[in-house]
Amino acid sequence: PAPVFAPSSLHSHLRLRNALFLLPQVRFTVMTTPEDLRANAEYVRMADEVIEVPGGANNNNFANVRLICELAETCRADAVWAGWGHASENPALPDGLRDRGIAFIGPPSGPMRALGDKIGSTIIAQSAGVPTIAWNGASIRVDYKATGLSDEVYAQANVKTAEQAERVAPDVGFPLMVKASEGGGGKGIRKVEDLEGLAAAFRQVQGEVPGSPIFLMRLASRARHLEVQLLADEYGEAISLSGRDCSVQRRHQKIVEEGPPVAADPHVWREMERAAVRLAKEVGYVNAGTVEYLYTEHPPEGAATKFAFLELNPRLQVEHPVTEMITGVNLPAAQLQVAMGLPLHRIADVRKLFGASATGSEPINFDETEQVPPLGHVIASRITAENPDSGFQPTSGAITELNFRSTPNVWGYFSVDSSGRVHEYADSQIGHLFGFGPSREAARRNMVLALRELSIRGDIRTTVEYLAHMMESRDFRRNAIDTQWLDRRITANVGVGKPPATFVALIGGVVRCHVTVTSRAREFCAQLERGQCPSPSLLSVEDEVKMVYEGVRYTMQVAQAGENLIVVSCNGVYVMVEARALSDGGLLVLLNGRSHVVYWKEEATGLRVALDGATCVFTAESDPSKLLADVSGKLVRFLVEDGAHVDKGQGYAEVEVMKMYMPLLAPEAGVLRHVQPEGAILEAGALIGRLDLDDPSRVPQAEPFKGTLAGAGPAPAGVQAAAEAAAAAAAGTSASSGG
To answer: 398-432: per-residue pLDDT in tens?
Structure first.
């Protein structure tokens, strides 16, 4: 049997398998890295054959065209499917495979080179009459069919240095975007409000996508991100398969996708589809692709249309199941069939979409034939290993629980499982959920329910609870959103509703008591098993704990008053809590007739508690003189010299976290002392540098809590007596043991 060679992609691997289950002679061979093997990546277990490749950055593996071609030839592959990201948009890949007689499941190198490059595609689009937004190459025109796009013409739009960017920026206008032509997925793009911040943003884009050409494009305010899904064959035919609204974005990376787009007027949407098909035919595009537009109900003065070309992605998008669920067209299977040489009118799913018999073979006039109505509405949520409480900073580490069950209305997949791990070279997206319904509101409700039932625990933080809360907002319900809507919410600190702070503090005390007493009991038994006389201190069931939550310091006395009874006192007032250990490591807490499920995780910067699904973080006492790493990553460079002064809020270093460059800001003003060298690999909690503070007295300290905890009151006599008796017994045992 002839194997099909494909890089890692869980979802499309699944879709291809399902589409081709009647063809057992088709086998899948996947590349995998040591990191993915250690992380127990899902796609590894599903493959027929696994080839291990070097780990580290993707230029060692999934983006290494030479390696992919050599391995494809070695394993005698008939075709390569590159998915998205990595080498999927590199024209050298289809060229290298063609030279070896291996098919590439995607567009040929010519159209890929022309349209997959953001600069090139914008030049070709505006030359073909597709509306574009203001950018530094807006005056360039080519006759692509006659002359193609020469390197000389392309170079006119390539901004090579920060100094050149500062010269052309005023003509583009502020605010603007600095974009890497080969970037994507939120990488290689920065928003700039004025000339002062342009040079730093330019260097960050250069660092995230090394070697990529760069251009400047005017930022479209209050615009939506709408995209048309294309499918084209090698015989010159191209069709639109509806599209998606991807306006909910964070740092220019999609978070929520939905379809079909309902924000645009139907006649405007139809024109957007026609323009996308026209562009595909202009360059002889083949296979699946996506044309992305910016759409606004109130176009700027001088604009002829409500939409403007943004870019074309010459590959399948990670959110393609949205289109599949509303059209019934299996896109990965259609990609394979196009690569096998089938014309569009011979693909069964396409025929059904246009109302023809699935088993027929007669040609279809796609320009004149109406498609069947959408099957419903779909809302998709990207599940990412990011911390919403820290500006969506990527996180990495082990996963101890991942509990999701698909339903008839919500389907999803994850790249890891409960025994997996998100490593430092991985993308932050670990899963994708797709909620279906007969209407947008029905799809939204199904998605919110699925998010609230999804449970992910471990070292990582996720966006699950944030997404559920966001989708319940009035703006999202009314579909009154744009590409900057989510960033505005983040800037305004519109977060997830948390339980009352005094209740969170109480639970923190319960957790500390449970962990401490359980640890002592375990050590007591261990010493007995070793034949040792246990230390009397291990019999103590009472402690004082100090915890800081949201800038307030809680000093509490906690005591284990019974097998499942914990007493917490603060400021002279007691609270009785029933706490039962769960088999999965959590606690079932009973208070005032209500039950609460609690999980926790010790971190370098404090204690993270998940209380009824809401994440609450207890922090250590503030010490701005120590500059610590919040998450694992790589220290790219210091922005301030050793021994130089930094102001409060000034960037002092840049770190690379899961392929994203992020600035580190000084918490207070002072003189910076470097501790780590540039290029160092950082673990969470690692000391990066020290600050000699200008004025240590101005450092904010946690305010002591002077009130009463949630559910507090005078302890019942029996409870108070039990707590005092337990403490007395421990003290008496200690005294007799010591005697």
So the answer is: 898 899 988 889 999 888 888 788 877 777 888 99
Secondary structure of the chain: what % helix, strand, coil (to 5)?
30, 30, 40
Q: What is the per-residue pLDDT for 48?
A: 83
Amino acid, single-letter form, for residue 667: P
pLDDT tens digits for range 5-43: 333 344 444 555 555 544 566 788 889 989 888 877 778
> What whole-number distance in Å separates Cα of residue 330 and Cα of residue 72?
25
- With contact defined as beta carbons under 8 Å apart, do 7 and 83 qualify? yes
Contacts of residue 128, defined as CB under 8 A and 6 or more positions apart, other chains included, come to 144, 278, 279, 282
CA torsion, points 189, 193, 199, 201, in degrees to nearest 10?
-30
Q: Reduced to 3 states, what is the DSSP secondary structure of residue 513?
A: helix
**Alpha-carbon separation of residue 232 from 278, 341, 347, 372, 635 (angstroms):** 11, 11, 12, 19, 44
Q: Choose the weakest-confidence range: 100-104, 371-375, 441-445, 701-705.
A: 701-705
Return the CA Rg of the chain: 29
Q: Please answer whether residues 288 and 331 qualify as being in contact, where contact means their C-beta atoms are separated by less than 8 angstroms.
A: yes
Higher pLDDT, 633 or 232: 232
Question: How many of the other CB atoms lie within 10 Å of CB of 242?
Answer: 19
Give CA separation, 340 vs 105, 106, 331, in Å.
9, 11, 14
Tell me the residue type at 288: A
Q: What is the pLDDT of residues 704-725, one digit of tens each?
A: 999 999 876 554 444 445 445 5
CA distance 248 to 481: 7
Q: Taking a C-beta distance cutoff of 8 angstroms, is the pair 687, 676 a contact? A: yes
The residue-averaged pLDDT of 597-619 equals 90
| Tokens, residue 349 | 């799913």
Residue located via tokens 């499918």:
231
Residue 475: exposure state from Cβ atoms within 10 A (0-12, 13-18, ≥19): middle
Instruction: Identify the three-state secondary structure at position 288.
Output: strand
* pLDDT for position 10: 41
List 653's β-bridge partners, or say none.
638, 664
Residue 711: is it exposed, middle or buried by C-beta count within 10 angstroms (0-12/13-18/19+)?
Answer: middle
Q: What percent of the chain has pLDDT over 70?
A: 92
Dig out the tokens for 115 from the structure. 């349209």
Tell me the H-state helices in 244-330: 266-283, 321-327
| 592 three-state secondary structure | coil
The three-point CA angle 408-411-415 to 5° equals 155
Sequence-ordered list of residues with C-beta below 8 angstroms from that of 261, at least 6 positions apart, any chain: 226, 243, 244, 245, 269
Count of helices and strands (H, E) across the chain: 21, 38
Instruction: Take residue 71 and report the two structure tokens written for it.
Output: 């391995």
pLDDT of residue 15: 52
Provide the whole-model pTM.
Answer: 0.80
The residues pairing with 393 across neighbouring beta strands, listed in sequence order, are 387
> Which residues contact residue 644 at a Cβ distance below 8 angstroms, ignoring those fewer than 6 apart?
671, 672
DSSP result, 363-420? ---TTTSPPPPPS-EEEEEEEESEEGGGTSEE--EEEEEEE----SSEEEEESS-TT-
Instruction: Report the side by side order of strands in the sheet with 3-6.
Output: 49-52, 27-32, 3-6, 79-80, 103-104
Catalytic residues: 315
Q: Where are the alpha helices (DSSP H) in 33-85?
A: 34-38, 42-46, 65-74
Residue among 578, 583, 582, 581 nearest 568 (CA): 578
Chain mean pLDDT for the chain:
87
SS3 of 34, please?
Answer: helix
State both tokens at 488: 């505005």
**pLDDT (tens digit, 9 = 90+) per residue, 276-330?**
999 999 888 999 999 999 999 877 665 678 999 988 888 999 899 999 999 999 9
